[in-house]
Amino acid sequence: MIGVAIAGTGFGQKVHIPAFKAHPQTEVVAVYHRDLNKAKAIADSHNIPHACDTIANIVALPEVQAVSISTPPFLHYEMAKTVLQAEKHLLLEKPVTLNATEAKELYQLAKERGVVAIVDFEFRFIPEWQLFAELLSEGYVGEVRLIKIDWLGSSRADTSRPWNWYSDKDKGGGALGSLGSHTFDYIHWLFGPVRRLNAHLSTAIPTRVDPTSGGLKPVNTDDTCMLALELANGTPCQVSISAVVHAPRTHWVEVYGDRGTLIVGSENQKDYIHGFRVLGSQLAKPLTEIEIPNRLIFPKNYADGRISAFMRVVDQWVQAIDHKQEVTPSLRDGVYSQLLMDLAHKSHATASWVDVPGLEGFLGS
User: Fold this and answer.
1) Non-local CB neighbours of 228 within 8 Å, separated by 6+ positions
2) Which helix (H) or strand (E) covers residue 128, if one does?
3) If you average pLDDT over every residue of the chain, what do you get?
4) What is the rounded average pLDDT of the residues 259-266?
């Protein structure tokens, strides 16, 4: 059994704790919250033996071999660094840090200390996405000529939703961080590296109610992102991301090639894991749904799809720890996603195309 500590009690309580409790090789032995009384209350409600209000206290516990971090992004770097310096294994939510320099430092530290660090890029573990990846690698569409991605949701559409860290760029908020981080990772996973990009970021809701004062507080983060990418092989990729729209198709990835079309998409607004389908067409025939083989189906399906996918992330992490081997997706993948986000902000600020360096060159610089 691997003793795991949970840092982050929002998403952590909803997804991380249930998944780690359900996994046969992990035991939740500690929980972190900056308010010790809240940490103790959460620990008591989930039968967790230890509650701490600092990460230093968490990693000092001999029962803790690994730490899972799902706090807001601005806390990730210092927390993850403390975990890695203590030579504890790390599971880190995305975006991994506030900038690619911090992410690179964590990646190098994990390598130096010989610990297994995984990033929760859970789209790699969804059955429909795995089939989609297999069909692409088998050449279903032939030579890829165009990639089109729409990720459109309404999680921030309500103007009465109060101001919080998501509204603050310095804290890692915004749609590019929450959704774009995933998008950049699966583009790299499915299609390879990016040569250059152009980004336009906008904010449809410029103020939100400050829950402390009751007044309006400025929002300086993006809630809509329009991205144009050119892959290393020259393929064009168009990406539209928004957290403030009501769209019938919430998440849709379309790939057009010289032999066919392949789509993975979902209309499910309430659950961003469940509801995907794979559609394909070859030689200009009508699109038809492609059945998911049983070998890819979740072995146990939770009502909250996030738990179903996260369980597979945990399993990947546990196997890598058991066998003392590298894991995918790793902090290396987190660095690349963060690098593309940094360059998207640079592109927006300069209203220009920005070249993307190779990952190996960036990691070596």
Assistant:
1) 197, 198, 199, 236, 237, 238, 239
2) helix 127-137
3) 97
4) 98
Which residue is listed with tokens 């919080």?
164
Pair of tokens at residue 341:
């986000």
- Measured CA to CA in angstroms, residue 129 lies from 83, 274, 282 at distances of 31, 11, 19
3-state secondary structure 6-57: EECCCHHHHHHHHHHHHCCCEEEEEEECCCHHHHHHHHHHCCCCEEECCHHH
Calpha distance 106→126 (Å, rounded): 27
How far apart are the C-alpha atoms of 76 and 191, rounded to whole Å?
28
Q: Are 278 and 136 in contact (CB under 8 A)?
A: no
pLDDT value at residue 48: 98
- Locus of tokens 């939770």: 302
pTM exceeds cut of 0.90: yes
Report the greatest alpha carbon distance in the chain.
Answer: 63
Sheet containing 50-52, strands listed edge to edge, beginning at the edge strand earlier in sequence: 50-52, 26-32, 2-7, 66-69, 89-92, 117-119
Q: What are phi and psi of 193, to 5 degrees?
A: -70, 165
Residues 57-90: b if buried by 16+ CB within 10 A, e if exposed:
bbbebeebbbbbbbbbbbbbbebbbbbbebebbb
Crossing angle of the two packed helices 331-350 and 100-113, in degrees rounded to 10: 170
- Per residue in 296-352, pLDDT tens? 999 999 999 999 999 999 999 999 999 999 999 999 999 999 999 999 999 999 999
71, 212, 339, 356 from 230: Cα distances, Å: 33, 44, 15, 10
C-alpha to C-alpha distance for 285 and 173, rounded to whole angstroms: 43
- State the distance between the two ends of the chain, measured CA to CA, in whole angstroms: 38
Residue in the structure block whose two tokens are 């089939």: 131
Tell me if residue 162 falls in helix, strand or coil: coil
DSSP 172: T
